Amino acid sequence: MKVHSAHRRDLQNLDDVDPLSGMRDLFDMRKDHVFFNGNSLGPPPRSTGSRLQSVVRDQWRIDMNASWWKYEWLNLPRAVGDRIGGIIGAAAGQVVVAESTSVNLFKLLCGAVRAASARSQARTVILTDHDNFPSDLYIADGVARHFRPETTVRRVPTDSIVDHLGDDVAVVLLSHVDYRFGRLLPMREITARAHAAGALVLWDLSHSAGVVPIDADDIGIDLAVGCGYKYLNGGPGAPGYMYVSSRLLTDFEQPVTGWLGHAEPFDFEADYRPDPGIARLTTGCPPLLSLIALDEGVSVTSRADPRDVRAKSIALTEQFIALARTRLARFGVEVTGPTAAAERGSHVSLRYESAPRLAGELASRGFDVEVRPPDLLRFGLAPLYIRYVDVFDCVEAMEQLLDHIA
Amino acid sequence: MKVHSAHRRDLQNLDDVDPLSGMRDLFDMRKDHVFFNGNSLGPPPRSTGSRLQSVVRDQWRIDMNASWWKYEWLNLPRAVGDRIGGIIGAAAGQVVVAESTSVNLFKLLCGAVRAASARSQARTVILTDHDNFPSDLYIADGVARHFRPETTVRRVPTDSIVDHLGDDVAVVLLSHVDYRFGRLLPMREITARAHAAGALVLWDLSHSAGVVPIDADDIGIDLAVGCGYKYLNGGPGAPGYMYVSSRLLTDFEQPVTGWLGHAEPFDFEADYRPDPGIARLTTGCPPLLSLIALDEGVSVTSRADPRDVRAKSIALTEQFIALARTRLARFGVEVTGPTAAAERGSHVSLRYESAPRLAGELASRGFDVEVRPPDLLRFGLAPLYIRYVDVFDCVEAMEQLLDHIA
């Protein structure tokens, strides 16, 4: 599929044979815009609005509180978790949906630090990438500051992570795909190195799940969190998810011990007793309406073959990079991020000094992209609904705009 | 309004002059059922379903991620918080919506324990009622177990709380209205006693906000949490809310330090720097669709005059108790909970040995009540949509059913 063509017709031909072309119709999208920011918030599946209406009108209204049992709302955090498990290569019972990525990360990091110190008191370091997503860094710092005074956070450059795997490392915290430049880290290799050094590994899958195949169980990762509203199309502020390997689950303790994590939430026992399974990671009632929307997003996303998704993701990013290099370099636009497809997620960032202005002009032409100040334009190339011609049209529009600006 | 009549017509007369009678039409409810379990999950406002549809179709679909700014989604946790502030007597900027009651309680308790120990190292006790809602007890235990090893939780009988206000108490954690028997604690008196003893007070308003007038600022409470899906009618698993008095806010630190609590969430600074205001209590993206439903519920609830609500709540519970005593005592049905209206919230529990069976029979007659095993039937008398005749009809149905059972 290595066609880097200057001709729109060639890209149209790729769309015509795209095995994912039918997926696009499952989303309710404007015809007059192309959203290259679906990696910040994916578009609504067609089914989401009507499902929400139905939940309000036919379930909540009719059966009120009994709906939690009658329509299995109570089980939905685990059921949707299992469906996400299908996307990230996790067998049932290891993924659950709750709160937000950051709250979930807090729970897992606290549990990981505790588990590591039980193995060895000397393991007190959370090792992470200094370019990790800021909220992940803030949460790690919060755990160190508030949770266990002996914990420290060590931020190091991405490429030297494995060099810092000393016997003081409790847990390695990394994003599978970097939020800015789309760099995809070698999960299998890093996990193996961390395990060899006696550390746990916690992966943030927010920018990879749904576009990059993940074999959580096969690789043997320990812990993961991820976001529901990017490539899983779960809607604004969709709850996040947690993965805890069944190897760790029985002894895994998280500190936010609310009733829904109890083994018998409705027995109202005097003391907390964690659920034996993944529900021990939950705390309070899930935000059901948002969870319903996530269920729709995950269900739609699950219908695509992950191999097709990855193949198209690579083809889209390669195409975009080749076109941008060919047609935009003369305006000082620089393609950032990994050059090898194997090291790239599904978004590409361009560096351009007047990035905010260019993004504004692009939006007025119907191409929505995201600006990372001061000079980055981020293009999410979501294979389920971005077409090859969209890539062509967007680069062409940029060329015309830059010609005009220049 | 002290009419305890055996005649349905007298109750119909009360409905006819009820200043809240118009509120009922704002909810989308079945005509063939009366829900006395609205204190577990309030009914949907009529506007909720269509607002959700509109948010999906006209905002999310059209403007995607830009909706967070364009439609002020980002500000909604504070805006809805301020509206809840209006219901609980809190000036703007002290209430914010996030996650669930239990997660919020975790944040506030951690912050309270930290704040108290900064005042005095000797203050290490979370003092609470041993009949408090189990999740509140579990969370307190979780804070003690995981957060600060020197913290202990002291559970004492409700009536002896003020006797345990020693100089080792960091924070008093109480439910304003007891979830089982509807006992309403004297918030002003207990808060004053706790303050005199140098302790902070954290109130759980889940069973009072929306039915009992609360003067958070005037009383001078320190901290509060509450639930969005009971009397605030915010929908299943609606996010909860936190109140932090402006007296404490500047120095208040909570441990789950995610990006949305940052002073500049979108600047992606290297280090966490808490928002100067109430947003420091937030962590990750709010579950927007659930938050929209909460906004609708709170908006509808806010339209009632709190004095009318309290007056009707008292009248409904008095009526219910009088009718139950008169007509059900001979079957061994016992009215539990406070006898004085001033000590009662808006629900009443009856004790009956075959409570589950009676609840089942009542449901088949169109009266939905909640069972607290083994022998309690809980009746939520929500003044916004429960009518006086509903109370009459329900007690009459119970009498007929018990006659048949006996």
TrEMBL record, chains A, B:
The enzyme's E.C. designation: 3.7.1.3
GO MF entries: kynureninase activity; pyridoxal phosphate binding
Cofactor(s) listed in the protein's UniProt record: pyridoxal 5'-phosphate
Recorded metabolic or biological pathway in which this protein acts: Amino-acid degradation; L-kynurenine degradation; L-alanine and anthranilate from L-kynurenine: step 1/1; Cofactor biosynthesis; NAD(+) biosynthesis; quinolinate from L-kynurenine: step 2/3
Presence of the UniProt keyword Aminoacyl-tRNA synthetase in the record: no
Any one GO BP annotation for this protein: L-tryptophan catabolic process to kynurenine
Cellular component aspect of the GO annotation: cytoplasm
Superkingdom, taxonomy of origin: Bacteria
Keyword field: Hydrolase, Pyridine nucleotide biosynthesis, Pyridoxal phosphate
Catalytic reaction(s) noted: 3-hydroxy-L-kynurenine + H2O = 3-hydroxyanthranilate + L-alanine + H(+); L-kynurenine + H2O = anthranilate + L-alanine + H(+)
Enzyme class, UniProt record, top EC level: hydrolase
Transferase among keywords: no
Record InterPro entries: Kynureninase, PyrdxlP-dep_Trfase, PyrdxlP-dep_Trfase_major, PyrdxlP-dep_Trfase_small
Family classification: Belongs to the kynureninase family.
Assembly, per entry: Homodimer.
Record function comment: Catalyzes the cleavage of L-kynurenine (L-Kyn) and L-3-hydroxykynurenine (L-3OHKyn) into anthranilic acid (AA) and 3-hydroxyanthranilic acid (3-OHAA), respectively.
Name of this protein: Kynureninase
Organism the protein comes from: Nocardia panacis
Lineage, broadest ranks: Bacteria, Bacillati, Actinomycetota, Actinomycetes, Mycobacteriales
Designated gene of the protein: kynU
